[in-house]
Design brief:
Number of strands: 0
Shape: flat
Distance between the termini: 68 Å
Helix content: 55-70%
Largest sheet: none
Order of helices and strands: HHHH
Length: 111
């Protein structure tokens, strides 16, 4: 059954391409913070920041192009060939957390 080996190899390669995030070690996460839930909150907030930055950059680029063209009410079709794939925001946030590049503090809660 050589086709079976080929099929398994193909699935393994596809899984590597699809999955951008590697499994995380809880022990390494505990080195950064003692509370796993705190780690999840920190990473999710960082992912939101990265996403917001990307949206703002895209909006600013679009605004500059609109000013250059002088037309504001026309929708410009984007060419699929111009698409640049960037790393997922969750992957960026997790990698930054695990590499120790993030700093955070607890906010004071009013009672």
């Amino acid at each position: 059954m050589p086709w079976m080996k080929l099929w398994i190899l193909y699935n393994m390669k596809m899984r590597e391409c699809i999955m951008g995030l590697k499994p995380l070690s809880i022990r390494k996460m505990e080195d950064r913070t003692k509370d796993v839930y705190e780690a999840v909150v920190v990473m999710s907030k960082r992912a939101k920041q990265v996403l917001n930055n990307r949206i703002m950059e895209k909006m600013m680029d679009a605004a500059i192009e609109d000013v250059e063209m002088g037309v504001y009410d026309q929708v410009v079709d984007e060419n699929p060939e111009d698409y640049v794939e960037s790393e997922k925001v969750t992957t960026v946030a997790v990698n930054e957390f695990m590499d120790g590049k993030l700093e955070w503090g607890e906010s004071e809660v009013e009672s």
